[in-house]
Amino acid sequence: MNIKQINYFIAVANHGSLSSAAREFDISVQAMSKAMTDLENEFGENLFERTHQGITLTPLGETFCRKAEPVSSSFCALEEMGETHAKELSKLRLFLCAPSFCRSAKARSDMAAFFDKYLEAETEVSIGTGEAGLGVIREGGCDALITIGPFDHPDFDCFAVGTVPAGICMASNHPLARQETVSLKQLEPYRVISSKSFDHFNESILVTYQKDGLKSPVVEPPAFDMPRQFYVKHAVCFMVNIASLGEMLPRSTMIPIAPEDAKAIPICLITLKGAKPPAYQRMEKLLRGRS
Questions:
Q1: What domain range includes position 40?
Q2: Is the residue at 119 inside a domain?
Q3: Which residue, 60, 85, 110, sits at the end of a domain?
Q4: How far apart are CA 213 and CA 75, in angstroms?
Q5: Total count of domains within the chain
Q6: Closest CA relative to residue 280, chosen from 269, 266, 268
Q7: Of the four, 230, 267, 284, 285, which is 20 to 30 A from 221 by CA?
Q8: Is residue 194 part of a domain?
Q9: Which of 85, 113, 130 is the last residue of a domain?
C-alpha cells in the first residue's frame, strides 16, 4: 500500500466512478482499476461494490475511507511543508547599500536575473542605506549586504567579490564635464559632496580618497540643499564608473578619474558571522569561481 493508492481510493469513493477518478489524476481507467484491485488484494476482501449504476463502498471500504482521508490530508501537508522549505532555501535576498540612482530598479532587476539563472534561485535585491541594511540583516530580512568598499565590524564577515573603477559624477554644465578624465589636482577648486547616510558607514570611495590625501573641500549638505550644491555650486560626487548603469543623476555626466589617481574599489558582500544560508553559500562559491 502506498499514498498514491490511498489518494486514488478516496477519489473513487468520492466520485463513485473509476473513470471520473482516473480523469482527476490524469491516468487511464485501466491504471486506476489495477491500483484498486491491488489494494483490495492486500485486504483480501472487496472495498467496493461494482454495479451498473457505479461504485459504492462496502462496510470495510467505508471504514478504510474514514481512516484514509486524514492520512491523505496529513501527507499533503507534509508535501507542502517540504516544498515550502525547499523554496525558502532557494531564496536569495540581497541588500544593496547605495543611494538610489536613475536606473537603480533595472540594475537590481538585472542582478537578480543573473543569480536566478546561474543559481536557480529566486533572488530579490533591495536598496537603501548601510545602517538600514544592517538592521534588515540582523532581523533576518536579507542574506547579505552589497557594499561599495569594505566594511569592518566584529559581528560581520566581508568578502570582496571584485573591484570596480571610480568616477566623478558632475552636473552636465560643470566646467570639467567635457574632460576625458579628471585628476585630483583638477578637482581641488570644487566641492566634493559627502553623504551622511553612506560615507560614514564603511570605507566608501570618498573615504578611500580622503585617506589618500584628497585636497578638495568636502561638504555634507542637508538633502534639500543637494541640488543647489550639485547643479549650481558645481560640487561633485565620487561614484562607481560603470557605463551599463547609465546616467546616475538627472542631467549629469560621469568622468573617469585620471589614470595616475585611479583606484580599484572593492565590491563586497557582508554577512553575519555564522549565518550564511545555503543560497548565499552557492552564490559565494559561484563568484569565487568567476574571480
A1: 3-85
A2: yes
A3: 85
A4: 66
A5: 2
A6: 269
A7: 267
A8: yes
A9: 85
Verify that 136 and 243 share a domain, yes or no: yes
Predicted local confidence at residue 88, as pLDDT: 55
d(CA 251, CA 234): 13
Distance from C-alpha of 140 to C-alpha of 33, rounded to nearest angstrom: 51
- Cα separation, 222 vs 180, in Å, equals 31
Same domain assignment for residues 132 and 10: no
pLDDT reported for residue 291: 58
CB neighbourhood size of 289 (10 A): 7
Overall average pLDDT of the 173-186 stretch = 96
All cell numbers assigned to 135? 538592521
7 with 126, same domain? no
Confidence of residue 122 (pLDDT cuts 50, 70, 90): confident
Cell 481510493 found at: 9
190 and 124 in a common domain: yes
Per-residue pLDDT at 189 = 97
Task: Estimate to the nearest angstrom the gap between the alpha carbon of 197 and the chain centroid.
Answer: 23
CATH code: domain of residue 72: 1.10.10.10
* Residue 281, CA distances (Å) to 137, 142, 271 in order: 16, 14, 11
User: At 101, phi and psi to the nearest 5?
Assistant: -135, 175
Dig out the grid coordinates for 203 from the structure: 570605507
pLDDT, position 282: 87
This prediction's pTM: 0.69
Gyration radius from the chain CA atoms: 31
- Is residue 288, in this structure, part of any structural domain at all? no
Give residue-wise pLDDT tens across range 25-69.
999 999 999 999 999 999 988 999 888 777 889 999 899 999 989
Return d(Cα 186, Cα 246) in angstroms, integer: 24
Residue 151, helix vs strand vs coil: coil
Are 116 and 80 part of one and the same domain? no
pLDDT number for residue 193 = 96
Among candidate residues 200, 217, 214, 203, the one with its CA nearest the CA of residue 147: 203
